[in-house]
Amino acid sequence: MAEMWITMGPQHPMTHGLWTLRVKVDGETVVDTIPELGYIHRGVEKICEARDYTQITPYCDRLCYASAMTWAQSYIYAAENLLGAEVPERAEYIRLIAVEMQRIASHLMWLGAYCPDVGNLTVFVWCLRDRELFLDLLQELGGSRMHYNFPRVGGVKRDLPIGFAMRARAKIEMFLERLNEYEMLLDESTIFLVRTQGVGACKAEEMINAGVTGPNVRAAGVNYDVRWAHPYSVYDQVDGIASIEKASSNEGSDCYDRYRVRMTEMIESCNMILSALDKIPGGAETHYNKKDEMIYLKPPLRAPAGQTGFHNFEDSRGESSFYLVGGGGKKGRGEFPYRMSIRSPMFITIPFVAKTMIGYKVADIPAIMGSFDPCIGETDR
What is the pLDDT of residue 13? Predict the structure, then answer.
């Protein structure tokens, strides 16, 4: 049979966002792929070079709507590195609680979107149901449903609301029980196992050489998590470990391994939140006095020209990084960064995944691509 090119995207359900995968097939077998990105490129980095340091956070929220809190915090740590800001320990605990709740919500969004790709519609509804538990808590912190604008240079927007710890503990306890139901529904499903086991195998060495990070590389047994490899915040003070899955075969980690590592990661995030609520300085149910300066720096925020700030952060999808150079223009009381550059884990991962599909069938493409949890907002920026 003659080879031919087919196009999947930009509106194909497999893409989970606006991008195109051009696939060369020989019958039903994939023999080559070309990913085409850039459909929703917004020029966020250049926009932020015309905003002061306090105005940039909302743009970072929108890099990935499913993981807004992690992207905003990734920027904040780089800005604090540039500006030399000191953060109260209590604020660091609040940040950790917020970002781990966002990680759970992001993984639930991934699982809910992924299961219909491989023939299971029930889990989609379940995941969105349980995601609401954590969105409610995040809304209490930031005041918004999706784009929170919660972290600040030097701390966070506000302290934990009254009763927040009690509600968080109750919801986490309920969610951990429900995770057992997820595992029963998926790990005992012949359809799910056939569609994921032995499909999309990737060797750890190949992913490391390509720059793939996060749960995708940990699913191949690589013990690399920025939270502990390059500790920041108070991750070294709470109870938690990196979630690692042993690759299923000599061919490497498959779609099932990438599913399993995220299930384990949600459990670890729950444990870290509970640990942080127990260990937060002053207690989870106490609050700052109104007369105390609330836990973030006020404008103006200025950095000497040429001074740089950089930070690696463990995003829900891998290692994100911000690079800032001080000394940009001024407007009013604020000062702009001269340059801002963002490293998106998915910008590296998607071209790699496209090549891992070679040798599999066209029907395997949604299972393979979805297992890597693509987010096109952070990819195109």
Answer: 81
Beta strands in the chain (DSSP E): 4-8, 20-26, 29-36, 151-152, 155-156, 308-315, 318-325, 330-331, 334-335, 339-343
Domain residue spans in the chain?
17-380
Long-range CB pairs of 270-273 (<8 Å, 24+ gap) are 270/100, 270/104, 270/172, 270/175, 270/176, 271/239, 271/240, 272/96, 272/100, 272/235, 272/238, 272/239, 272/240, 273/96, 273/97, 273/100, 273/101, 273/168, 273/172
Average of per-residue pLDDT across 62-81:
92
Q: Which CATH class is domain 17-380?
A: mainly alpha
What one-character-per-residue DSSP string does 266-331 give? Answer: HHHHHHHHHHHHHHSTT-TT----TTSPPSSPPSP----TT-EEEEEEEETTEEEEEEEE----EE
Q: Of 289 and 190, which is predicted with more confidence?
A: 190
On the CB side of 101, CA atoms within 13 Å amount to: 31
330-331/155-156 β-pairing:
unpaired
* CA 316 to the chain's CA centroid: 2
> What pLDDT sits at residue 321?
94
Burial class (CB in 10 A: 0-12, 13-18, 19+), 192: buried
Residue bearing tokens 């800032």:
324
| pLDDT attached to residue 291 | 44
Q: What is the pLDDT of residue 287?
A: 66
| Percent of the chain clearing pLDDT 70 (strictly above) | 95
Answer positive or negative: Cα dihedral of 250, 252, 256, 258: positive
Q: What is the reported pTM?
A: 0.93
